[in-house]
SAP domain-containing protein (Oryzomonas sagensis), 59 residues
Amino acid sequence: MKLDEIKERAKQLNIKTGRMKKADLIRAIQQAEGNEQCFDSGKAVTCGQDNCLWREDCD
């Protein structure tokens, strides 16, 4: 997902994006949605969240 799309999603959740990096934005979105803040944490292989919106970009 492109950064502009991520910022738009964050804005919908009332997250102030400022100069946040992509990974920080995604983790803030995960938190706002009540999900584990696991993006780019190395858990992609074991997380079991195959339908996660961020799956393609996650490590």
User: Anything to note?
Assistant: Residues 3-52 form one domain. Helices lie at 3-12, 22-32. The chain has a mean pLDDT of 90.
